[in-house]
Amino acid sequence: MAAMASLYLKTSIPTPHSFPKLQKIHFTPPLALPTHKTRPATRISASLIDPDGGKIVELFVKQSEKESKLKHALSLPKITLSKIDLQWVHVLSEGWASPLKGFMRESEFLQTLHFNSLRLENGSVVNMSVPIVLAIDDAQKSRVGSGTSVALVNDKGDVVAILSGIEIYKHNKEERIARTWGTTAPGLPYVDESITHAGNWLIGGDLEVINPVKYDDNLDRFRLSPAQLRHEFETRNADAVFAFQLRNPVHNGHALLMTDTRRRLLDMGYKNPVLLLHPLGGYTKADDVPLSWRMKQHEKVLEDGVLDPETTVVSIFPSPMHYAGPTEVQWHAKARVNAGANFYIVGRDPAGMSHPLEKRDLYDADHGKKVLSMAPGLERLNILPFKVAAYDKTQSKMAFFDPLRAQDFLFISGTKMRTLAKNKENPPDGFMCPGGWKVLVEYYDSLAAAENGRIPEPVPA
Q: How far apart are CA 80 and CA 152, in angstroms?
């Protein structure tokens, strides 16, 4: 995977940027929404889109202040961060949630739950659809007492950050779950992992990160911050950036959507559209393919020429996954605006999942793209709903579905793909590049080895 790093990414930290004022640019999605004012046609601009609030808010302590801040942190009450909490520190510290300056205080939490947006001091509105909060229990609340700052530490007790100007307020879990997921049914993965057994209080405040989050998994070089991505896009002279969020292996149908999007942007008058291939790198549910294997598979997709490395930037998005459908897809889109993307590809049932109790999808498959076209604070982002791709048996390749010859197409579901890989069977030629499919087979073989008591080979990084 070292080859992918050298070919597709520049990981040096850029010097501070100024972000030029950008004219609003819009794209009218092909949706029949008569009750909503449609967006005007896209206007071409050579500048990157402004981040929310006008600048990226990074929350790192200056090198010259680290020693004194660390000394101060050691004197403060300590809160131990969970794995997911640490991922949110990562998200906040790099400015993905700009203009947030830390874990949400109550006013920000309520605006997020009820309006999916935050109103700034100047009266403008930015999108914020998922709560970024830190839960504490009664004992931790008691230890904090009347203090105004706390130290945040990892599971080894090492200081990560200081949270100052703190506010502690009630963690109404039922309301949070109902408004974020639209249901309180048991079995929601993120809820089970991070909310159900969390404390009954939330603590918000300004975040100062002393030691930036690192994972030491040989993938840190792919975790580019919004500032680093903007630097990369500027280096490549991108006049448009289109983002594709994914948490699954890339098949040729995905590749068709991405290459067709670039063609559409060229037809619109852009000269150098660049793809941000942005796999989610935070928490995912147990049956999703792990990040290390997905990154290895993405490498093969680029090596096999399915996507063009000259016009593709591969990076890891550090956010945890909620599986909250139309609510969460707004967060995915908003974060990419902060990274410089002015186009966002959205497909069927984005950020969705099966209902945890009933045999149906939890969300309407079309609601994600409809919500994105109307979401408060996302007016500057151009939404690109993609066509349905399926396997065309007459051409032996992935193609856009033609309802006039529906009998010629084969839909290969994720379940079918996993079954084939587990059984070491090949999919139809043209469904996925051979190198990428081999990685998927190796992954499921490693699971079978573990179940049979053999120690699987670690995935090469």
A: 6
